[in-house]
Specification:
The complex is a heterodimer of chains A (251) and B (195). Chain A has helices at residues 3-18, 24-36, 38-53, 65-78, 81-84, 109-115; strands spanning 144-151, 159-165, 170-176, 185-193, 199-204, 212-216, 223-232, 246-249. With 251 residues, chain A is α+β, with helices and mostly antiparallel strands. Chain A is elongated and about 70 Å long. Chain B has 195 residues and is mainly alpha-helical. The termini of chain B are far apart. The chains are: A alpha+beta (251), B mainly alpha (195).
Chain lengths: 251, 195
């Protein structure tokens, strides 16, 4: 293909590229072309400015007041010195699968459905507390409890750090070193009560580095352990389909 | 180290520096300026108030933890935030089954004019002018051009999918997208809202 033809074909794609509607191969082609074409680069910049105005046309909707409070509480907590050097936490280690972390007995799926909480945090990880070495540290947030999750078996090396903001009614779970998921699967977080059956706490896909943060709009009162399993995506399941290999005790 | 207290008229550069220095007040200021707008965009895309809340929370925390990456020379803080919200919301939508179109359900969210805590009234006026101008620009587009852009921007559809939906050739969709964005730019530039 001649350079002129290549340029024309790429130029035809620029609006689709700016709108994020090209496929990965086209996306790579456009990016490569832009590195050496100032004309197309200027077009892209102009189209991007137009695109940047589009959100302003959205119908105004007032967010709930709690959203502001949750964001600021989570942000404050994520900068705590303890996050970069977490204290040792007690970890629940599982025996082989036949011992069963999940309670036995039937008829509990409906109970789970009734107590299911909303799934959070699909998409890229938040990287809480990562790479922040400059500036003053905010004052520690009071009433924060920390726990950890530890992987075994296929999830050996995976970890989770849990920050329970009791007063704010928030819980952050920061995962790292999660194994890559099979196609069509998602990770699902489970909240295990002292009695009864596990409740789903959200589904997520980690970033390419195996990291992700799940935010729960609740504290962990009544929860004795957290666990993670790989479940069918994108929505996960209402009940775990396998023994968890990443678990941690709460309290 | 004491930080200079940010005011309601702080620039993006000042806010960016304060965010990078872990100033929670700066994050509160960003939320008060753009939180309602970010939430509105997420609701528009997801059609679900609770999911929109999650996406906005994730996005603000992402910005909080990567504030040093913000470069005011490359774009405004608002554009950075809203692009991130849009991308995350579309990812969420497509991850859950992007082709299941849903009616926007705003019953659980109060539909009202955006008004953050401590919002600057002049900023609100400016935002209203901008919003009306963008809506006016969109309304002036031919229906098929507007549809192509909205399916891409709010629905996360690829241009190939839009061609199937619209039953037109791929080249037609690409042309409609280009024309739509060019016209939006020209109109908003004429209004002094874009460079």
């Amino acid at each position: 293909m001649s350079p002129e033809r290549d340029h024309e074909e790429i130029e035809d794609l620029l609006a689709a590229f700016v709108l994020g509607t090209t496929d990965p191969e086209e996306d790579a082609l456009v990016r490569e072309h832009l590195e050496g074409c100032s004309t197309c680069t200027r077009v892209v910049q102009r189209l991007q400015r137009a695109l940047g105005a589009l959100p302003l046309a959205a119908e105004s909707v007032t967010p709930p007041q709690r959203l502001r409070e949750q964001i600021l509480a989570a942000a404050g907590a994520s900068r705590r010195p303890e996050i970069t050097a977490p204290r040792r936490a007690r970890v629940l280690r599982l025996r082989p699968a036949r011992t069963g972390l999940w309670p036995a007995g039937g008829g509990w799926r409906s109970a789970i459905a009734a107590s299911a909480i909303v799934a959070f945090a699909l998409g890229a990880g938040l990287g809480l507390g990562l790479g922040r070495t400059i500036g003053p540290q905010p004052a520690p947030v009071s009433g924060v409890a920390q726990y950890s999750l530890s992987g075994s078996g296929a999830m050996s090396g995976a970890q989770g750090r849990v920050f329970e903001l009791k007063q704010q009614g928030l819980t952050l779970v920061e995962f790292s070193n999660l194994p890559e998921l099979e196609a069509g699967k998602v990770y699902e977080l489970w909240l295990i009560p002292s009695q009864g059956q596990p409740s789903p706490g959200g589904v997520f896909r980690p970033d390419p580095g195996g990291s992700h943060v799940v935010v729960l709009a609740r504290n962990l009162q009544g929860v004795t352990a957290l666990a993670v399993t790989a479940e069918p995506g994108p929505a996960g399941t209402s009940a775990p389909s396998q023994q968890p290999e990443l678990v941690g005790k709460v309290g | 180290m004491a930080l200079t207290r940010l005011t309601d008229v702080a620039s993006d550069i000042e806010i960016g520096r304060a965010l990078a220095a872990a100033d929670v007040d700066a994050l509160a200021l960003v939320y008060d300026r753009y939180g309602a707008l970010a939430y509105s965009v997420a609701v528009r895309i997801l059609g679900d108030a609770k999911l929109a809340e999650d996406i906005v929370q994730e996005t603000f925390l992402k910005i909080w933890n990567s504030a040093s990456a913000f470069d005011a020379d490359r774009g405004s803080l608002r554009a950075w935030l809203l692009t991130s919200v849009r991308n995350r919301a579309v990812d969420q939508l497509r991850g859950r089954g992007a082709h299941e179109r849903r009616e926007v359900d705003l019953e659980s969210a109060e539909t009202a004019r955006a008004s953050g805590v401590g919002a600057d009234p002049w900023r609100e006026v400016a935002a209203t002018v901008e919003r009306e101008a963008v809506r006016d620009a969109l309304a002036r587009l031919p229906v098929e051009q507007k549809q192509a852009v909205e399916l891409a921007f709010y629905g996360g559809y690829t241009y190939r999918e839009i061609a199937e939906i619209s039953r037109v050739p791929l080249s037609t969709v690409k042309g409609r997208m280009r024309l739509a964005l060019e016209k939006l730019h020209s109109y908003l530039e004429g209004k002094g809202l874009l460079e």
